[in-house]
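> example.struct
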């Protein structure tokens, strides 16, 4: 791994250099959590499965009191114009793409992509569970794009988080409903999961779209799942869309069994929830 060990380090890619782990390792870890900025870098998955591609904050040094790593709000770390690819350019696998263990991190323009076309693409080829896991508190994302992962695309475990704009396409290629189930009796996987333990989170302008193209009906019960105990109007301007009449199945609800379905009955039509809960 490339280890970023000094506070206030800037890792700036010139011409979008691409980092590819060849031995199933983590491409980059940030072990100091104050003022580290990473920008203009592509992380490609390698031929051997990596547990994580980019990790901000060392999971092995968690605060025993609050379960995550503190980071100064006055000197936050940030990821700017950072892109992830699982397959597409070359065959690759990674269980999780980005993990944020630190508090007060800024995420600005992240495209986190399990490839739906290109080299090494297929349900059992470019395997990847989750694009982004946020464990830190007070993390803010501006312009978050996460696509085609095979389980929850985003898992947000930290309190005080904010996401302003989220774009998602669910995986195109689940071979059957049985192969893509969040739990017994729960079809598919939500694109954005706010953990049940979270007490405060705000989301604005968040969309999830389906295009299941394997010729069988595949459904997701919800695009978004959040605790119903969040303060009123924590989630704002949410939508789902059934992208193409050549697709199958669809998304049955926008958020927490609320909002109605996006299926062949209403293709290319936004199904919206303006405010929740």
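> example.seq
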């Amino acid at each position: 791994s490339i280890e970023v060990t000094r506070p206030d380090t800037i890792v700036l890619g010139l011409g979008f250099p691409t980092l590819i782990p060849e031995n199933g390792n983590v491409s980059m870890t940030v072990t100091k959590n104050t003022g580290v900025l990473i920008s203009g870098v592509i992380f490609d998955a390698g031929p051997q499965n990596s547990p994580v591609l980019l990790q901000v904050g060392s999971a092995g040094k968690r605060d025993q009191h609050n379960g995550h790593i503190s980071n100064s709000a006055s000197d936050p770390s940030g990821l700017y114009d950072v892109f992830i690819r699982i397959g597409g350019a070359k065959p690759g696998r990674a269980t999780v793409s980005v993990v944020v263990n630190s508090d007060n991190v800024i995420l600005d323009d992240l495209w986190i992509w399990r490839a739906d076309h290109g080299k090494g693409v297929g349900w059992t080829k470019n395997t990847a569970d989750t694009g982004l896991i946020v464990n830190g508190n007070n993390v803010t994302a501006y312009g978050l794009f996460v696509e085609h992962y095979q389980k929850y695309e985003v898992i947000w475990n930290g309190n005080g988080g904010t996401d302003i704009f989220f774009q998602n396409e669910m995986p195109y290629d689940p071979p059957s409903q049985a192969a893509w189930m969040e739990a017994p009796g729960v079809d598919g996987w939500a694109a954005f999961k706010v953990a049940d333990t979270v007490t405060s989170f705000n989301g604005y302008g968040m969309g999830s779209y389906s295009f299941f193209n394997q010729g069988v009906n595949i459904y997701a019960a919800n695009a978004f799942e959040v605790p119903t105990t969040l303060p009123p109007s924590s989630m704002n301007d949410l939508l789902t869309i059934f992208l193409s009449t050549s697709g199958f199945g669809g998304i049955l609800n926008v958020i927490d069994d609320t909002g109605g379905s996006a299926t062949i009955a209403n293709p290319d039509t936004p199904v919206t929830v303006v405010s929740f809960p």
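> remarks
The CA atoms of residues 122 and 173 lie 7 Å apart.
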